[in-house]
Design brief:
single chain, 102 residues, alpha+beta, three-stranded mixed β-sheet, 3 helices
Length: 102
Amino acid sequence: MISVFRVLRINRVALPVQRCASSQTDGEVRIAQRLKEKFPLASSLKVVDISGGCGAMYEIHIESSEFKGKRTIQQHQLVNQALKEEIQGMHGLRIFTDVPKH
């Protein structure tokens, strides 16, 4: 099983905290579902809470033929529009978009 590790600093001692990559936070599930609804042709979608599970910052990787012919900024604007409500409660969002190569 692949794991993602974070480090908590308690009294200047670093303690590893493990989060299984197979489990998703409620925020990750909610955002992924919204993106699946808005981009039904997406061939690849990955949503990761990079804030340690508190939902303040996410990283999104999405590959969809719906982005074909659009510049990167236009692709990102489509994702931002799809997540308009969710973004209001975030501190940051990293978006990576692509068009399928086939």
